[in-house]
Amino acid sequence: MKKILLACSLILASVAGNAQSLKGTSLNDRIGHGQDSIDVLGSLSLYQDAFKRQSYVEAVEPWEFVFEKAPLSMVRIYMDGTWMFEKLISDTTDPEKKQEYFDKLMKVYDQRLKYMDQLNSFSSAKAQSSKGGITCRKAYDSYFYNPKPDVITSYNLFKEGIEDTGNDTEGFVLYGFMQLSDARYKANNDKYREDYINDYLLVTDICGRLLEQANEYETTTEVNEEGDTVVVLSPEAEKIIQAYQPPFDQAEALFVSSGAADCDALDKIYRPKIEANKTDNNYLTGVLKVLRSFECDKTDLYEKAADYSYEIVKTPQAALGKASKALKAGNTAEALKYFNESLSLETDNSKKAKIYQAIAVLMYQRGNYGEALKWIDKLPGNGSLLLLKASIVARSGSHKSIEATGPYCLAIDICNKAKSVDPSCAGRANRAIANYTANLYPKSEAFMAGIKAGTRVSTPYGSTTLRFR
Prior knowledge:
Layout lengths: L1 H16 L9 H5 L3 H18 L3 H14 L6 H16 L3 H20 L1 H7 L8 H14 L6 H15 L5 H17 L1 H26 L5 E4 L5 E4 L2 H24 L4 H14 L4 H13 L6 H13 L3 H13 L3 H14 L3 H17 L3 H8 L6 H12 L11 H16 L4 H12 L5 H6 L7 E4 L2 E4 L4
Antiparallel strand pairs: 1-2, 3-4
């Protein structure tokens, strides 16, 4: 018997040491031969049967035997193990048992990381994992399932995992990280404020980028029973939005309620550091990004950082800072000069869109609607700019006649287009549609005037079909 056990151990050690040898192997190949393999198969059957019945306490012992004796038998043991111990931790009230289950849960992640390459070599694409992905999930569980949470360890695990996975980080992981960072900040505002701000920017940046990707999928429209045009998202876009819109909104809600990034707080963080780093353009550019993200780009601190940065190298952020300073001084022409310079330096289309939007808003605020429309039309796929266009168009509507309400109808068309090209602005678009609809003639009055819905009408900004409320 000792010889058989030794032979099985050697086989398992050999398999574990060579990832390539596992490709195309079967379960029997990966658990070796002899009595150990028989015991493994027996335990595998026992644990799977108990697991299916959700009898997790009963499943633990046979599961552990497979986990320890045949770590490369199948990926499923790791997936089932995490689920099982999460449930056991949640369901038990015994502190000692909670700790015992938590320790086993962490061991699942550690062993999966240890054998990741070997496990991936024979797994389907769907079942394969990455170091960052495993680390992110370990970080989440290490914080939310630990009877005695270790904030430092969990925080570092989150940072390590998210840095590795980037835009592939799961939505629930991002929000979990934001919750941990929020708790960390509330425990010591002064010490962790800057980390908290950077963590918020990291989470919303990843979610935002993925939500922008959702806009790249084609959408369709259909008319509902009320005659309104409804945007229908593709399954791919719907999946992204369901996964990343909630954590984006939740992270924003946490951050806004924290009060961590009011302009005064940011001033206290960055003012002394700007002076110390006035020749470090990487640092200055980062500060400009933070200040602009929290609408503190009208402050003298922003202008100071922009001036230092601009003197070192003309970057898009620095040019925007100069534009902001010019606007504050009431010099529109100079502001436009720097806006255009920023556009010429910027290579990121999403950031260019924000500059187009800033210029369009500036022109709108100055009452130069024709110029504003020129900038808006440069980005026909930008939902926010289309909503601004709808606002401009609606200004030409009136109630002098039913036909004079045409601009409100056209504004509604533009809002629907905004939703179709940019689902993330659907909420704002619907609110705008409600406002414009309130300006339409009632159906009864249109009927008495002999005018039907769908009648074509011209406006200063193009033709549309009449709508009624």
